[in-house]
Amino acid sequence: MLTRKSLAIALMVAGSTVAVLAQPAAQAAAKRTLVRTGHLLDVKTGKVFDGQTIVVVGETIQSIAPTAEVQAQAGDAVIDLGGMTVLPGLIDVHTHLTMNTDFDPYRELTVTDAKKAINGVANARTTLMAGFTSVRNVGAGGYTDVDLRDAINAGQVPGPHMLVSGPALGITGGHCDENLLPLKYHLVGDGVADGIAEVQHKVRQNIKYGADLIKICATGGVLSKGDDPQASQYTLEEMQAIVADAHRLGRKVAAHAHGAQGILWATEAGVDSIEHGSYIDDAAIAEMKKRGTYLVPTLYLEDWQIEKGSLPAFYHQKMVDVSAVAKSNIKHAMQAGVKIALGTDAAVYPHGLNAHELDVYVNQLGMAPLAAMQTATLNAADLMGWSAKTGALEPGKWADIIAVDRNPLDDVRVLQDVKFVMKAGVVFKGPRD
Ligand SMILES: [Zn+2]
Questions:
Q1: Is residue 410 annotated as a catalytic residue, yes or no?
Q2: Which of 116, 202, 215, 252 is catalytic?
Q3: Fewest Cβ atoms nearer than 10 Å: which of 12, 45, 145, 262?
């Protein structure tokens, strides 16, 4: 057992936050870091193993073995997480890191792409420090998420591993358009595309400018003016064209969908995930199960909105209507066995509170704690196509490691206070004394 002083030294050897930020992640030294764990949670089985040491070399986990079998060698850095519960870094598959929590839509119109990128720098750090070592960012103007991802990968700024979509595709006047100003201003959302030819062009344009996946708006939404969350927006044929092009070019498709018809059409078109799913019905549930489509509920934001939100009137009633039915419909889908990946819509509530979504799953919807943990690890990694890279603590995967005070299977709320964060072998947050 290390003393506090030696722990501090060990963390410094591993690299203090400030020092690490100055160097690209790729330059993380190829020496060994031994992470001595108190309790190691296997998110596949729910088993807890005491006294394990995770050997980290460069960005990845080299081995995991009982601590007695792993002697420190000269030059090894040692991190002592004795007494803590260690688990894989969490994953949020629905974030908007370049956006801030701001419900004055007319003020949002004044936000430049440069400001979005700066927002992204701050929010990426906040999200990482909350224990989320990977995110899928689904919707950002001006490809600001592409630049944020690249800056994080280059080690310029701290943040989670990111997959990004660029601007979300949507119909003219739909949830992903800008409907706030009259015609004379000719304001059009970055991702607006109508008809087969235009959606094909937009998919290809997003990929050209750096998108890892394609986000579409299949139905109306809540935080948009003049549209109906229950109404389908893209047609089945348009979505089939989007999915065909995206998949052919190696990109997955995430579909914002509240209304039941839009969920069903998007699923039939072959999208990889349904985001929100508020009005999901039995027909959509059956089709999603048949195809293995993921559902990404975003429910904590409703609690936060009810408690602290201040939406303009043309958003507020839609939030009330959707909130009245979403949790019971999502609970029904969960119980029916639809695959769930954790996503939060971070930006609709303040960034960094992402783990509150797990509290909703377990303590409001009755999901088993281990199943909830898997939505934020194994399932989320699977949806992102990153099962070989993250989502579990295993040799060969990124050393994305977090630690909390107690076993989250006893109380998932402990994940709202993550004490230690390592991403790709670099320590960003140390345990507090
Ligand atoms: Zn969203």
A1: no
A2: 215
A3: 45
Q: Are 40 and 407 in contact (CB under 8 A)?
A: no
How much distance in Å is there from the Cα of 63 to the middle of ligand 1?
A: 37
Helices (H), 222-342: 236-248, 260-269, 282-291, 300-308, 313-336
The dihedral sign for the CA sequence 96, 99, 103, 106: negative
Name the β-bridge partners of 254.
215, 273
Distances (CA, A) of 146 to 149, 165, 317, 383: 5, 8, 34, 19
Look at strands 294-296 and 52-57 and give their pairing.
Answer: unpaired
Listed residue (153, 249, 263, 154) closest to 206, CA to CA: 249
Residue 345 is a catalytic residue: yes
CA 408 – ligand 1 centroid, Å = 27
Contact predicate 103/312, CB 8 Å: yes
Who contacts 346 (Cβ-Cβ below 8 Å, separation ≥6)?
92, 94, 95, 96, 97, 123, 127, 352, 353, 354
Whether the model pTM is above 0.70: yes
Alpha-carbon distance 94 to 432, whole Å? 29
Give the H/E segment covering residue 90: strand 90-95
Q: What is the pLDDT of residues 129-172, one digit of tens each?
A: 999 999 999 999 999 999 999 999 999 999 999 999 999 999 99
The tokens for 216 are 């579409």
Cα of 333 vs its chain's centroid, Å: 20
Place of tokens 């052919």: 248
Number of alpha helices (DSSP H) and beta strands (DSSP E) in the chain: 14, 15
CA 256 to centroid of chain Cα atoms: 14
Q: How far is CA 178 from the centre of its chain?
A: 24
Could you tell me the distance, in angstroms and rounded to a whole number, from the CA of residue 74 to the centre of ligand 1? 48
Tell me the two tokens of residue 146: 């592409």
CA of 33 to the centre of ligand 1 (A): 37
Question: Of 87, 93, 90, nearest to 43 (Cα)?
Answer: 87
Closest by CA position to 92, among listed 56, 139, 131, 62 = 131
Strands 77-88 and 32-41 turn out to be parallel
> What are the residue ranges of helices labelled H in 166-233?
195-208
Report, as an integer, the average pLDDT of 183-201: 96
What is the per-residue pLDDT across 220-229, written as a single tens digit (0 to 9) for each?
A: 998 888 899 9
Question: Greater confidence, 214 or 320?
Answer: 214
**Longest CA span, the chain:** 73
Contacts of 293 (CB under 8 A, 6+ apart): 267, 271, 272, 273, 274, 287, 338, 339
- DSSP alpha helix (H) spans, 364-432: 369-375, 378-384
